């Protein structure tokens, strides 16, 4: 089984909806998406971490039968001898687990928006086989899409010594704390292969609950949730393309009665200000960002996860923001926090129907014309 595939094409991803193109236009701030009177959200996507006291409701623990299925699927994938980029759900058959994953998809798309599959035996499998298993399960949930302009589709999250003070660095390359944010995809999947010495805690928060808190605590700022802002692309763009993308923080694709779809990354909102063509943030904008950060990080709203090695974490990034605490790795090198990451687009006809146009990954990050799709960045950072 080949673990890298530089010459292969990336898996098919959903095409942009009519009326969208690869580079979104730059609307005038505050004029195009703000509802006349923002209203609170309701439904299962609205939750507070303090109220979620039954972990078994969001965890699927793999049984011996399901683990045997995974081993069988891995053998079948090796028998078919496909490169990772060409491996489809059909090449990784999971008859029983696929039904479990379909039920989880309903929770991800229409429920609380996150789930954990516990017990993937990554230590027994080793990194290469664990990567294949991770990819194979991911293909049952959606379409892998590029995570950077070099065409990366299977990412390795670990400290590479970079800092977010570098405008070309991204959070997954650092060991710094990452405040609550969303990734620009439908579904985020991560699988820890090894743990740090200290720190690295993952926390989640309901975007709809944060939205409602803003309406309740600062109704004067509520309209700004729906205004257009500019996000730094952190040098993940081709020559001639704009260095930022524009989007509202909140969209309500189903109308004011629908669940909100949120996009938020304060680091990228702030660093976009380095470009003179980007409109300046107003004091009230930063008041809004401060409030979002404060509510999301509060013990009442956030849910701190007990995420273990071998836990597959799935997050609907329309509905849930995530954060990570700073961490310290073991010494000597080679014993470090290491997670695999996939960005997945919902299959056509599923959650993507509820997504606003900006969520299409090719509107935010897509390979440069000279970049061949790549399965992994592991060769950059040897284990």
Plain-language structure description:
This is TauD/TfdA family dioxygenase. Keywords: Antibiotic biosynthesis, Dioxygenase, Iron, Oxidoreductase. One of its GO terms (biological process) is antibiotic biosynthetic process. The longest helix is centred in the middle third of the chain and has 18 residues, at 122-139. The relative contact order is 0.24. The protein is globular, with a radius of gyration of 20 Å. It has six helices and 18 strands. The chain has a single domain, classed as Clavaminate synthase-like (Double-stranded beta-helix, 4-Layer Sandwich). The strands form five sheets. Strands 1, 2, 3, 4, 6, 14, 17 and 18 form an eight-stranded mixed β-sheet that branches. The chain is α+β, with helices and mostly antiparallel strands and 383 residues long.
List the helices and strands and how they pair.
Elements: E1 59-61, H1 64-80, H2 95-110, E2 114-118, H3 122-139, E3 143-144, E4 152-157, E5 178-181, E6 187-194, E7 198-199, E8 202-206, H4 207-217, E9 228-232, E10 244-248, E11 250-251, E12 261-262, H5 266-271, H6 283-297, E13 303-304, E14 312-316, E15 320-324, E16 327-328, E17 338-345, E18 374-376
Parallel strand pairs: 1-2, 4-18
Antiparallel strand pairs: 2-14, 3-17, 4-17, 5-15, 6-14, 6-17, 7-16, 8-13, 8-15, 9-10, 11-12
Helix pairs in contact: 1-3, 4-6
């Amino acid at each position: 089984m080949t673990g890298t595939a530089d010459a292969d094409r990336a898996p098919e991803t959903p095409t942009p909806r009519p009326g969208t193109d690869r580079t979104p236009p730059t609307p005038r701030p505050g004029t195009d998406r703000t509802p006349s009177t923002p209203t609170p959200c309701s439904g299962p996507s609205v939750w507070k971490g303090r109220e979620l006291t039954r972990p078994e409701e969001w965890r699927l623990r793999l049984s011996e039968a399901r683990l045997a299925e995974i081993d069988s699927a891995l053998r079948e994938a090796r028998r078919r001898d496909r490169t990772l980029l060409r491996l489809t759900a059909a090449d990784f058959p999971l008859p029983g687990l696929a039904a479990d994953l379909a039920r989880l998809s309903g929770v991800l798309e229409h429920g609380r928006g996150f789930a954990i599959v516990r017990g993937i035996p990554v230590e027994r499998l080793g990194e290469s086989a664990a990567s294949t298993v991770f990819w194979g399960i991911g293909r049952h949930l959606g379409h892998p899409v590029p995570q950077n302009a070099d065409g990366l589709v299977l990412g390795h999250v670990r400290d590479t010594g970079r800092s977010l003070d570098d405008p070309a660095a991204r959070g997954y390359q650092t060991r710094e704390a990452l405040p609550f944010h969303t990734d620009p995809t439908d579904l985020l999947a991560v699988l820890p292969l090894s743990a740090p010495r200290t720190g690295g805690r993952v926390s989640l928060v309901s975007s709809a609950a944060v939205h409602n808190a803003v309406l309740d605590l600062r109704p004067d700022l509520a309209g700004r949730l729906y205004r257009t802002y500019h996000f730094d692309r952190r040098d993940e763009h081709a020559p001639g393309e704009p260095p930022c993308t524009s989007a509202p923080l909140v969209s309500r694709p189903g109308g004011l009665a629908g669940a909100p779809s949120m996009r938020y990354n304060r680091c990228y909102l702030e660093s976009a200000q380095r470009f003179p063509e980007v409109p300046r943030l107003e004091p009230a904008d930063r008041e809004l960002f401060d409030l979002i950060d404060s509510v999301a990080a509060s013990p009442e709203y956030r849910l701190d996860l007990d995420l273990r090695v071998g836990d597959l974490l799935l997050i609907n990034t329309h509905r849930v923001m995530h954060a990570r605490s700073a961490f310290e790795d073991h010494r000597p090198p080679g014993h470090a926090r290491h997670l695999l990451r996939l960005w997945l687009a919902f299959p056509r006809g599923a959650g993507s129907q509820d997504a606003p146009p900006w969520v299409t990954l090719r509107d935010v990050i897509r390979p440069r014309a000279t970049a061949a799709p790549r399965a992994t960045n592991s060769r950059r950072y040897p284990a």
